[in-house]
């Protein structure tokens, strides 16, 4: 099998035997961790393996004793005509000869885009249903299914079928048994960036690359076309208006349909950032489906003339190009919300999916002009810090026309968050304004996930109220359990309270739903960096670069990884490739490592002069790397006072700050943030 051995477990009668090729060890570990976290016993080899007859006999015994045999199938198993895992497969198949046909035992798991048809596996594995777990990311339905198969009386539908393919769904992290020592600031900058990049109020999509893998950082993008059977992507709608001045409305139409489709449990809906990365491009639909991992594509167009709108929408099988459903609608602009709901329901019915008949009716717009200002405000946020002022004006105008318009209040809160994140305004000014807008949204709709998210971010980055931050983030995930942003936030929360394996699973689930979002890949890599897995972190940062070569921060983080490996010359090349906003910081670090003290001093001076752009924490980081702890602590005190948005996670987990952690001043800093070491 591999150059490792199985550890003895206490309850052999309930165990899952995990069989895999050695190249897939990391993915197997992820599946093992997900099952063990749910109380499922797994036979999984982790220690050094000794070959020979005794070891071979042990393997045979455990395959004979296990309740389920889980065979991991991948491009790696396909590439190997010989391997001990194939011997294990044959032993498992031989055992089935002594079982009834109704007994569930074989569970084939595909961890990448290997096709079932033609796969080089024993015929018996072709007779049962396969499950796809891209990158080994487990999810609650999969775990529940495995537990049901292990139960004394598994459901009849499970007999002989293995575990059926299940669409990913977020798992809400359980409360910590201890106080939450959150550095949710990772969540925060990460979540702020994600919030503003991935949600409907920030576009700037990256051009889609030729998708290639960094599997250790995230589920591998498809190399062959084998998406989940009920996966769907909504592309940005085309503006067909006479003056072509309704792009904000066309984008808003597609975004709202995405949001409505995520409410259908059976659907796996690709995130907005990934889908909108194809805006203005002429890629064929099969290629788009492959890159997004979507079996179906929704596209359409809008034409607006005065108070009338014409919308066309069509559902297409991405593999064959077959049009499965198409409709054209002519409506008053005031009916646009009901129209969006009608389109989403039409798509669901075309896919033979049930839609809730007992849901509250979709209201008409109270004020169509308010909706127009709302869409314009969201479009302005797409332009980044240059558009935030205009966005706030538009959104405030929307609320003045319709004080009950909850989505305008949500977007206004996010606009203030954007200002804080971009250092356009101070935390002391921006966060209270964001909280006021979020609380207004909650008064209008207590189930506003975005409002809970903003309040959670403020609790962690400004108030340092970790229990409140945790509660708000749990509320966000409960309200948006299948939203890539909610999963993204939950991943950071899980990391910060010490559930690192769960954090990786949640982050990878977010990536699976938004595979071309460079921010998600970057932050998945960043979690791994903070956990000390530098190799996987580097792959993740490079994957983010593949998706968006100009996405800030990736080259600098790769440079920091190379510095940890004592490779300053290679680190210099990465720092020089970083965008202007992060280059000076990286150069201050790498010049010092190269012994170029004067150059390091000059770069550090430039960083200090531009503190509003770089933040006090980054200045402290350079001083800590240079060994000047007094200056490092002085700048960290300033970072606490200014509520630097990155402070918590880097202070506690960044290896550069490790030399500070034995200093009494470090404990004082943690106490000032209501944290413990």
Furnish the topology, listing elements before pairings:
Layout: E1 4-6, E2 16-19, H1 25-37, E3 42-43, E4 45-48, H2 53-65, E5 68-73, H3 75-79, H4 84-96, E6 106-110, H5 123-126, E7 131-132, H6 140-150, H7 185-198, E8 231-234, E9 238-239, H8 247-261, E10 268-269, H9 272-276, H10 285-292, E11 296-305, E12 308-317, E13 323-332, H11 336-350, H12 368-381, H13 385-401, H14 406-421, H15 427-444, H16 449-461, H17 466-479, H18 484-496, H19 500-513, H20 518-531, H21 534-547, H22 554-564, H23 568-577, H24 580-593, H25 597-609, H26 611-614, H27 616-626, H28 629-642, H29 647-653, H30 664-672
Parallel strand pairs: 2-3, 2-5, 5-6, 6-7, 8-10, 8-11, 9-11
Antiparallel strand pairs: 1-4, 11-12, 12-13
Helix pairs in contact: 2-4, 7-14, 7-18, 8-11, 12-13, 12-14, 13-14, 14-15, 15-16, 16-17, 17-18, 18-19, 19-20, 20-21, 21-22, 22-23, 22-24, 23-24, 24-25, 24-27, 27-28, 28-30
Query: Please, how many helices?
Result: 30
- Relative helix content: 40-55%
Helix-strand makeup class: alpha/beta
What kind of sheet is the major sheet?
Answer: 6 strands, mixed
Q: Any idea what the shape is?
A: globular
Terminal Cα separation, in Å? Answer: 41 Å
What's the number of extended β-strand segments? 13
CATH class of the domain at 4-158: Alpha Beta
CATH level 3 topology of the domain at 4-158: Rossmann fold
Spans of at least 5 consecutive residues with low confidence: 1-13, 154-223, 357-361
What is the CATH architecture term of the domain at 4-158? Answer: 3-Layer(aba) Sandwich
Strand content: 5-15%
Give the rounded overall mean pLDDT: 81
* Rg over CA atoms: 26 Å
CATH superfamily of the domain at 4-158: Toll/interleukin-1 receptor homology (TIR) domain
């Amino acid at each position: 099998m591999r150059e490792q051995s199985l550890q003895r477990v206490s309850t052999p009668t309930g165990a899952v035997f995990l069989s895999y090729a050695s190249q897939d060890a990391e993915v197997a570990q992820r599946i093992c961790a997900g099952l063990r976290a749910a109380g499922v016993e797994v036979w999984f080899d982790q220690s050094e393996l000794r070959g020979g007859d005794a070891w071979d006999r042990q393997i045979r015994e455990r395959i004979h004793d296990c309740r389920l045999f889980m065979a991991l199938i991948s491009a790696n198993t396909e590439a190997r005509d010989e391997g001990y895992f194939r011997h294990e497969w044959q032993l498992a198949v031989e055992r089935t000869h002594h079982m009834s046909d109704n007994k569930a035992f074989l569970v084939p798991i595909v961890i990448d885009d290997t096709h079932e048809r033609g796969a080089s596996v024993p015929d018996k594995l072709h007779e049962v249903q396969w499950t796809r777990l891209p990158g080994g990311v487990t999810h609650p339905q999969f775990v529940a299914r495995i537990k049901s198969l292990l139960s004394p009386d598994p459901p009849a539908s499970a007999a002989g079928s293995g575990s059926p393919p299940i669409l990913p769904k977020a798992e809400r992290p359980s409360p910590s048994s201890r106080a939450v020592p959150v550095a949710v600031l990772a969540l925060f900058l990460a979540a702020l960036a994600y919030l503003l990049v991935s949600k409907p109020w920030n576009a700037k999509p990256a051009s889609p690359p030729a998708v290639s893998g960094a599997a250790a950082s995230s589920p591998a993008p498809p190399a062959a076309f084998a998406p989940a059977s009920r996966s769907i992507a909504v592309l940005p709608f085309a503006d067909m208006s006479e003056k072509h001045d309704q792009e904000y409305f066309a984008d808003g139409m597609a975004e709202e349909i995405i949001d409505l489709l995520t409410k259908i449990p059976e659907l796996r809906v690709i995130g907005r950032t990934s889908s909108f990365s194809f805006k203005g491009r002429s890629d064929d639909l099969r290629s788009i489906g492959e890159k997004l991992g979507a079996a179906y594509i929704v596209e359409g167009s809008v034409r607006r003339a005065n108070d009338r709108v014409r919308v066309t929408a069509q559902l297409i099988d991405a593999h064959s190009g077959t049009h499965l459903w198409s409709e054209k609608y002519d409506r008053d602009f005031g009916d646009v919300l009901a129209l969006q709901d009608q389109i989403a329901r039409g798509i669901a019915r075309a896919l033979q999916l049930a839609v809730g008949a007992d849901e509250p009716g979709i209201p008409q717009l109270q004020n169509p002009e308010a909706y127009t200002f709302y869409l314009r405000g969201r479009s302005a946020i797409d332009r980044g810090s240059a558009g935030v002022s205009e966005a706030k004006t538009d959104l405030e105008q929307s609320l003045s026309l319709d004080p009950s318009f909850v989505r305008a209040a949500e977007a206004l809160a996010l606009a203030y968050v954007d200002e804080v994140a971009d250092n356009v305004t101070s935390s002391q000014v921006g966060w209270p304004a964001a909280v006021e807008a979020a609380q207004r949204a909650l008064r209008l709709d207590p189930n506003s996930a975005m409002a809970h998210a903003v309040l959670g971010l403020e609790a962690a980055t400004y108030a340092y109220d970790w229990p409140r931050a945790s509660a708000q983030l749990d509320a966000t995930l409960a309200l948006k359990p299948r939203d890539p942003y909610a999963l993204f936030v939950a991943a950071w929360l899980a990391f910060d309270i010490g559930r690192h394996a769960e954090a990786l699973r949640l982050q990878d689930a977010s990536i699976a739903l938004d595979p071309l979002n460079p921010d998600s890949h970057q932050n998945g890599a960043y979690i791994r960096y903070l956990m000390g897995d530098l190799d996987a972190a580097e792959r993740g940062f490079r994957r983010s670069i593949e998706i968006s070569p100009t996405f800030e921060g990736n080259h600098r983080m790769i440079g920091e990884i190379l510095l940890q490996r004592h490779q300053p010359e290679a680190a210099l090349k990465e720092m020089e490739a970083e965008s202007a906003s992060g280059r000076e910081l990286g150069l201050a670090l790498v010049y010092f490592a190269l012994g170029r003290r004067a150059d390091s001093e000059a770069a550090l001076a430039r960083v200090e002069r531009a503190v509003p752009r770089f933040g006090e924490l980054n200045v402290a980081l350079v001083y800590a790397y240079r060994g000047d702890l007094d200056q490092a602590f002085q700048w960290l005190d300033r970072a606490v006072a200014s509520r630097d948005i990155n402070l918590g996670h880097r202070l506690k987990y960044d290896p550069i700050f490790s030399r500070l952690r034995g200093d009494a001043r470090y404990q004082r800093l943690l106490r000032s943030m209501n944290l413990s070491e």
